[in-house]
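Consider this today:
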Amino acid sequence: MNRLIPILLLTVGMLLVACDYDTIQRDNIMQVEIANDSEYQLNLGLQQILGRPGIVEAHISRQADFFRISKLTFEVTALGVEDALIYSYLAAQDFVGRDWVEIKVCRGAACADANSSEEVVVIEFIVRN
């Protein structure tokens, strides 16, 4: 009986950790297969240019676990205008397996409104050699 308790605690702990990934709505997941040494980039859209509504706010709400690079950056045109929001990911050296990131994005002027809704972008990486 004394040996059974630690095994049960370990099993329950592992299930709780595994549930973190499974609680995401699966219909919002993009699945991307990449080589371990390849950098993946996703253009999340335009910033406000010439009055057109674009991305006003974006942030990584759940960081990837196994990465050398996992960041959001704005690309700037020759005119000095921030015109594209890019998410970049490069897997940790020698990492092979699954990783994921969650990015919350709010588009348009509605982001200033406290009742605005955010778009959640989840990217699941399948990293291979």
